[in-house]
């Protein structure tokens, strides 16, 4: 086959180069493109300048592999982010007021949808400046942060030495309660980004289990100021983008309930997360990604997104994953009550040329998520669906078909090998990057790659990673080889391997629960504690 060359204009789905501010408009429409009639869409406007080239197909690998979808079970009953009350009222809090700043949302990193900036404090706030109060088991201190421009805020701390007893709690003025307690396990390379809070004020409580206050041990040196709110546009004081905007309608998952594939799309949505992260310690970005199943259905939180979203461990450490960030009903601007946030991930593999990243999440996703099935087989003409969070909006769905495979696409910064999807209903936008494309087989969603970007002239022509091209790179995790530490655990506690899935086995006061393919997922000592397997090691919850 002769190679052919065709020039066109492309854009990263999460790139925001030379654009005007977002204009989010809700309106009633009555459209039927085979998906069903919708009564809601969001229109966002974006314009980009990138160049692309297409070349001949690469040879297909000889193998074909696939896995089905499973759902998270509710065995442990522990919320993904349970609130944790402050230990003291904070009447002696250190007041930290940020000045008004000129915030430009034009991306400084190619491919990243920018939602805020990192403000470096001219003078860090040290532990010695705080008023430490004696509480049961140690000392606490508080900081009260105000940034009038902010929609959300995140604290960054540097620690002078390793502190195993430190615990952080944060609460924004728009949060109903303090977020979950964050301990030393979230500290990486002696620094930590705390969870984002909602509102333009954020209270931080620091607890240290020491006999005396930890005066020389840490400082607050930076604050992430996020000015783009979920669904509500941007704050004042943000620099305008420099070119005109094009209208792009997106179709809400909640309005797709008339489609035959709706049950499958619901499962795909429950495996899809909106991702917030901090890139290079400078900007706050947003993308989308998908929770994947493995061959043994261990429910290990494997996660796929684009490498232009998360390509370093430093960025993965800052990632926040929003689950069930979707509308409860068609036309609603409310958010599903199941919405939860988990934080942090380990980057296992990433590749810029293939624009794919594979991670293992630090925290267990909330109950009800799906670990999505996948296949490394994709064909031209195949009917597919995109499930994504354009502009950090609620879950949207797009319907289309595969038009070309393994094309060489050249942007202003690099070359990529990608598949082309042409949507006939909906499309993709900023923030959609890293989201999955799915086929539906016998009522189940099958994941087939992650979003790189779209064409400038037509947001319905999009470009996705080719899973078959990198399946061999991540196969060792999706195959889930037996872990020697787990086998030792089985032997130590006399685990019984012959039971079928769902059966229990009781021995010496322990109940082994939820067998999957003969492997133990959880065990409970009826008098003391509950253990559960996170895919790598056993965790104990007292």
UniProtKB/TrEMBL annotation:
Gene3D superfamilies given in the database record: Trypsin-like serine proteases
Name the UniProt record assigns to this protein: Lysyl endopeptidase
Species of provenance: Crenothrix polyspora
Top-level taxonomy: Bacteria, Pseudomonadati, Pseudomonadota, Gammaproteobacteria, Methylococcales
